[in-house]
Design brief:
With 125 residues, the chain is mostly helical. 72% of the residues lie in helices and 0% in strands. Helix 3 (40-51) crosses helix 5 (75-89) and helix 6 (95-109) runs antiparallel to helix 7 (114-124). The N and C termini lie far apart (30 Å).
Length: 125
């Protein structure tokens, strides 16, 4: 059993590959997972996240400022936001944890100040 942080990294990578390669999310999850069994948490933040993706994109677009849209964001940023929106929407984890984890991923994988945008959007949800 992986830690939720590790599962979020796998989820982010899976969503990223799905966006970048226009690949089925289920295939991405299986390709990035260490086992044939998909952890229920990983399933939720990836497959359920993609299921409700359009709703989450609409929510994010409503919070982005200026001429920024979800589509203008990088695929990693999109992946982090979809996962976090899903966790918040389905009340999988407390909001503070979701925000902290999203910021940690953004600081590790995105441009230097991207975490501020991620935090700003998620904080308003």
């Amino acid at each position: 059993m992986s830690s939720r942080h590790k599962l979020r990294e796998i989820g982010m990578t899976s969503l990223y590959q799905s966006f970048l390669l226009n690949k089925d999310i289920r295939q991405s999850v299986y390709d990035n997972n260490d086992s044939n069994e998909v952890d229920p948490f990983l399933y939720t933040i990836t497959i359920d996240g993609m299921k409700y993706k359009d709703v989450y994109i609409e929510q994010v677009n409503a919070l982005l400022q200026g001429d920024w849209t979800f589509e203008r964001l990088g695929y990693i940023e999109q992946a982090i936001l979809i996962m976090a929106c899903c966790e918040l929407d389905l009340e999988v984890s407390p909001k503070e944890i979701v925000l902290d984890e999203a910021i940690i991923l953004a600081k590790k994988y995105c441009d230097k100040d991207t975490y501020k945008l991620i935090n700003g959007v998620l904080d308003k949800l």
